[in-house]
Amino acid sequence: MRVLLTRFRSRFLPLTLLSLLLVVSQALAQAVPSPQPQTVIPSPPQIAAKSWILMDADSGRVLLEHNADERLPPASLTKLMTAYLVERELNRGNIGMDDMIRISENAWRTGGSKMFIEVNTDVSIRDLLHGIIIASGNDASVAVAEHLAGGEEPFAEMMNQHAARLGMQNTHYANATGLPHPEQYSSSRDMAILSQHIINDYPEHYAVYSEKYFTYNDIRQPNRNRLLWRDPTVDGLKTGWTTEAGYGLVASAKRDDMRLISVVMGTSSEEARAQETQKLLSYGFRYYETLELYEQGAVLNTPRIWGGEKDELRVGVDSDVTMTLPRSRNEELSARLDIREDLTAPVSLGDRVGTLEVRLGEEVVGEQPLVALESIEEGGLFKRLFDQVRRFFTNLLSGWF
Fold first, then answer.
1. pLDDT tens per residue, range 137-190
2. Is residue 136 annotated as a catalytic residue, yes or no?
3. Which residue is catalytic, options 59, 104, 136, 141?
4. Which listed residue (51, 59, 76, 187) is catalytic?
5. Is 124 one of the annotated active-site residues of the chain?
6. Is it the case that residue 215 has pLDDT exceeding 90?
7. Is 268 a catalytic site residue?
8. One of 79, 114, 238, 279 is an active-site residue; which one?
9. For position 128, what pLDDT does the model report?
């Protein structure tokens, strides 16, 4: 069963209006949208970096990219995964912010940027997480690796397992810090994917990435992300630098209801990574918008179901449906429901029953599973027999007409 829904004419369709628009005859499914003028978007800016990407944090759509899958040394961008695993363990209740960790000599001796923890002292998870994100502390990173996995090598194995789980296909970790290692690499796309999960999976911890200063052991260190001072909409995430990697920056900004993630890797200086990131963000916010099309749990259709306690099944989406597209082209959006024919009870809550297809003009720009929003058990014997007769004549008549 294919049903044409509607074109989207606003940033958000109220559910009452949506319910009316969804009552469309099957004949309308064959209607062809009239051509619409397309918004003219200028060429993207020139970015002085080895690799870069611009992604919408909600829809996941990539707006711009260059060498986004090239494997490059990530430097301290590595610590995004280190922090992500700390946040995951906090969320699962395996550790707490006030848990104290005894600092080993190995962690204390780690070179490079430091939080300046002291050997054989006890430091809270809260302070170590701030030290990793804001001060880019290699010593703090090793300390949590030892606490969570017993050492940096097994912690790197954990990092790789989660990189695979998140779909980071061009990433391999060899340590928790980002210090140079021949077997450690990542890509702009993978850094954007990881950042999207940091923002969306554990939002209760995300505020740390926007903090401008961190003081520990009477030493006050600034966040190296210069955009936190220049652009009030920027609220994360992490910088990185080594001689081999050059200067990198993963940033995120939110303006109105739209959040973008940008990654630049291999720029020439601290100032360059800030400026190139600002170019990407400015371009994305100016020429694109993200629309919320359907809310999680919204009833999109009520197709006939046979042999059940009820005659109709409520179907919809099990997560919010958002779409990122060039500004002023929402008039060109349309959607279709492709619902499985001859739905038969029993059906369980969450069972997939079809596909929601979203088009921008003639281009398919998104697909989302349609799922049952309720469970329907089999009806009694009489109901099932009665539905079999009704289905026979329904199919017979539809074959004639």
1. 999 999 999 999 999 999 999 999 999 999 999 999 999 999 999 999 999 999
2. yes
3. 136
4. 76
5. no
6. yes
7. no
8. 79
9. 98
